[in-house]
Fold each of these.
Amino acid sequence: MTALPSPFVQIDGVAMRYGGVEGTLALRGASLDVGEGEFIAVVGPSGCGKSTLMRLVTGLWPPTEGTVIVAGKEVSGPLSIAGMAFQNPTLLPWRNILDNVMLPLEVVQPHRRQLRSQRGHYEHKARELLKLVGLAGFEAKFPWQLSGGMQQRASLCRALVHDPRLLMLDEPFGALDVFTREDLWDVLQDVWMARKPTVILVTHDLKEAVYLSDRVLIMSSRPGRIIAERTVPYPRRRSLDLTYTAEFQDIVHELRDRISDARKAEAPDAR
Ligand SMILES: Nc1ncnc2c1ncn2[C@@H]1O[C@H](COP(=O)(O)OP(=O)(O)OP(=O)(O)O)[C@@H](O)[C@H]1O
């Protein structure tokens, strides 16, 4: 019998308290595994600790208790193999779009070391990514010259330019109108199909979670932990028509009911 490969992301019994012993307990007993190349979505009540979980996986904060292992190593500082995108695109206003997308290459090794001698190669890569998300021709524009949706596309390119094995997305489409959001779902789907990074997506949008992921993890109210999961059965490439089918909507309703139960559940000793 062949052994199963170990998960790419392993979170085991993690607790996180902000601000010392009297501070806010954001997570308690949180455990989850994500396989390499898997796309998972994390949903849960507001304030349950989803963003906190993302910070622990990317090494931006250490857990108060428990372990976080990524690619076989315990996380002990910011992870260079991760690309990140958040609700707010946070592009640097004084850099044009191409230079914004290339920013991680100036920070993350081995790219940082190679950037000067291989600038042409890296620039080509950044331009190809911008083309993939429909931003060819906008390389020399500044963020303020782009719409919110276009800025979010650029921020997705920035998260991908250093070929991260792990893509961490914290409500990346939350601030966008529904049409732009749906366009970007398909952009993300195409990027995932082409490069197969491991993706952890935090979202409040249950339709988005089901449309994009292989598995949806549901968190309890704070202090958050994973209380249930739902496997999504649809092969890719998925089309938006799928979201109008009764079966798809049943899955969304099922998730909504579970989150509503989690919101009602008492968390008496959470502070
Ligand atoms: N830097 C911080 N210092 C102190 N408390 C914090 C900090 N960041 C988050 N918290 C608290 O930790 C808890 C979990 O916050 P977190 O942002 O992880 O939740 P979330 O599920 O992402 O929320 P939302 O769904 O509203 O975006 C909240 O009670 C929040 O107030």
Note: The chain is about 30% helix and 20% strand.
Amino acid sequence: MLEVKDLRVSYGQSEVIHGIDFVTAKDETLAIMGRNGMGKTTLFKSLIGILPGSSGSIVLDGREVGNLPSHERVAAGLAYVPQGRMIFPNLTVMENIESGLETLKTSKVPDEIFDLFPVLREMRKRKGGNLSGGQQQQLAIARALVSEPKVLLLDEPTEGIQPSIIKDIAHTLNEIRRMKKIAIVVSEQVLSFTMAIADRLAVIEKGKIIHEEEGKSANQEKIASYLAV
Ligand SMILES: Nc1ncnc2c1ncn2[C@@H]1O[C@H](COP(=O)(O)OP(=O)(O)OP(=O)(O)O)[C@@H](O)[C@H]1O
């Protein structure tokens, strides 16, 4: 569903992503794990088109999207939940979700979104900024999902979220994958979270993928050793 080949990304003269390759199938969750500063956010920003890749290719469902602007990548089926959630604090929950509909013809938020996130239905008239961190994360995921993506990209969704809510987010992502049969690519540092959702785990270090394993049988000690400072 998503095929990334030899992707390189630079800030000015300084290359930060040094030729990344991965493939994610439909209905598969891939976790990209790495410590702070290893390149996760840079990778995700370049996948969605906020940062230009300097070379390589990004193929979504058979179509090269690496040279398209962000909004066309979204229209083609990529959706992005940024690190820090970046919801609009002064818009209501409903307005935040509706902002994800821009690439679609409809302006109606499907009911299934509120079936996945019942708390957002209750809070639909509240300002986004008044929600808890976990609720804001649900809102950011809901906003990404209304564009009917084929691939959902999430950058460190558990950051700053309390452990009990992290479990809920894992449950929701598994439910989304089961219901929508989409591919999910998530960057993370929390191993218990990725073990609960991922079919495959890849470790990113200094802008390269240096290790990859099947999720269920993953050697957790080994992955944890890469994540230790
Ligand atoms: N705007 C920028 N200009 C120059 N260098 C940058 C910029 N943003 C990030 N970098 C550098 O790129 C490298 C990768 O950073 P990136 O934010 O992608 O890592 P990360 O794995 O997402 O870490 P974190 O979890 O802290 O966000 C780091 O060395 C960082 O200093």
Note: The longest helix spans residues 163-180.
